[in-house]
Every structure is written in structure tokens, then in C-alpha cells.
Specification:
This protein is mainly α. It has one domain. It is 94% helix and 0% strand. The longest helix has 68 residues.
Length: 83
């Protein structure tokens, strides 16, 4: 009877160890996916930062051209509203 109880306990412990390994592999996969997602977000953020810098440079160039012509940026807003 004692042997049967020990064998039952052995199977329970093997099942628990198997479950722990399953969770270990699952969390490892989740961790890798999160790291990949973060890396993708960082790359996208860098691209958007570059696009924003290019847009800001273009706006500064256009403001410079308007300043050379003696036209302020607020005048264009009034022209647009009138149409």
C-alpha cells in the first residue's frame, strides 16, 4: 500500500515538474515576443522622429522664404479663412 502511495506521489511530482517546464517555455516565448515588439516600436519611433525633423526643417525653410518676401505666416491663415 505504501508503495502505491509513493508511486502516486511520484506521478504527481512529475506532473508538477512538467507543468513548471511548460510555463517556463511559455514565459520565455512571451519575453522574446515582447522584446521583438519593443524593438519594432523603437525602430518605428526613430522613423517618425526622422520624419518629424524633416517636416520641421521644411517648415523652417518655408518660414524663411515667407520672411524674405515680407509675408507673415498669420496672413496666410486669414487668406485661407476667407476662401
Amino acid at each position: 500500500m505504501f508503495t502505491v502511495a509513493l508511486i502516486g506521489l511520484l506521478f504527481v511530482l512529475i506532473g508538477i515538474a512538467g507543468l513548471q517546464f511548460t510555463y517556463l517555455f511559455y514565459f520565455d516565448r512571451i519575453d522574446r515576443e515582447r522584446k521583438k515588439h519593443i524593438q519594432d516600436l523603437e525602430q518605428r519611433s526613430q522613423r517618425l522622429t526622422d520624419q518629424l525633423a524633416a517636416a520641421q526643417q521644411r517648415i523652417d525653410e518655408q518660414d524663411g522664404i515667407l520672411a524674405e518676401m515680407g509675408i507673415e505666416g498669420d496672413v496666410w491663415a486669414d487668406v485661407i479663412e476667407d476662401r
